[in-house]
Design a protein that fits this description.
Length: 281
């Protein structure tokens, strides 16, 4: 499958303002299933752009703007080839076939940050009972059940701007954007002793899916023998070739598509408009 990603964000201000460095995390993470064949990234005003990799190995474009401006435009054109992917095509290590399980010591020391909860809130999904030492359950079936339970419980709302809700708030409202549900699932997985991270990227295809054809967020869990496996609680499924990851991290701030700020001596009204088009090539 060949997919074209066409993205544009425009910030407008009442008068010229200055800008902090802006970091852009919209570039697909390439692997066996995803290859990037074209990349065209432009800014207006034109500026110095330096590409690098952050601590999570995400590709980040850092933009440095020297002059004030009344507008900031970021435009991205990417072509991607995505190979067919069966989300269940993996073999778990024997120790991970049932939950709960413990990671081997050498792995646990590396992924410990992903197992640490990011909130002190109490989280309990109504109607769902986690596995226990007294009542273990098959790992894949449990994760399928949990992902689908969140899909059934949390109604989807599209919210372009603003920070992610806390997991407790998402459960209380039983409503949230994809990033809210992804954060909630990550915290629930950490409660189960698993390593989890949040992911931002693109959801192409999958007609009828929530957030299809838009910037999207989901969750990955580390399973011994399988590696990082994508779970999308917004749609209640494991991630297949329709999911194109761009950034991974511990918290939503780690995967923000565009981060940066403007500044001026006075209070300046501002507006932002963004547009994303995913096309089949």
């Amino acid at each position: 499958m060949k997919i074209g990603v066409r993205y544009e964000t425009i910030y407008r201000y009442d008068r010229a303002v200055r800008f902090s460095p802006h970091d852009v995390r919209l570039f697909p993470r390439t692997d066996r299933f995803v290859q990037m064949t074209r990349l065209d990234f432009r800014t207006q005003p034109e500026t110095t752009v330096r590409f690098g990799r952050d601590v999570f190995d995400n590709v980040v474009a850092s933009c440095f703007f020297d002059q004030p401006s009344e507008m900031l435009k970021l435009r991205l054109a990417i072509d991607v080839e995505a190979a067919k992917k069966n989300p269940f095509d993996f073999v778990l290590s024997r120790r991970a076939v049932q939950m709960p399980f413990n990671y081997e010591e050498d792995i646990a020391s590396i992924i410990c940050a992903y197992r640490k909860r990011q909130t002190d809130e109490s989280i309990s999904l109504p109607g769902w009972t986690p596995p226990s030492q007294e009542s273990p359950r098959e790992t894949v079936a449990t994760l399928v059940e949990l992902t689908n339970a969140l899909h059934q419980t949390i109604s989807y709302e599209r919210r372009e701007e603003g920070a992610a809700q806390s997991p407790a708030e998402t459960l209380r409202r039983q409503r949230g954007a994809c990033r809210d549900t992804a954060v909630l699932l990550a915290e629930m997985l950490r409660d189960l002793g698993l390593a989890a991270r949040v992911v931002s990227g693109y959801l192409a295809g999958g007609e009828g899916s929530r957030a299809e054809g838009s910037l999207h967020a989901w969750t990955e869990v580390f399973l011994p023998g399988a590696g990082w496996i994508g779970l999308d609680p917004t749609n209640g499924i494991f991630c297949n070739d329709n999911f194109i990851p761009a950034a991974v991290g511990l918290r939503p701030a780690d995967i923000t598509p565009i981060s940066g700020s403007f500044y001026h001596r006075g209070r300046i009204p501002a507006e932002m408009k963004s547009r994303l088009e995913l096309i089949t090539l």
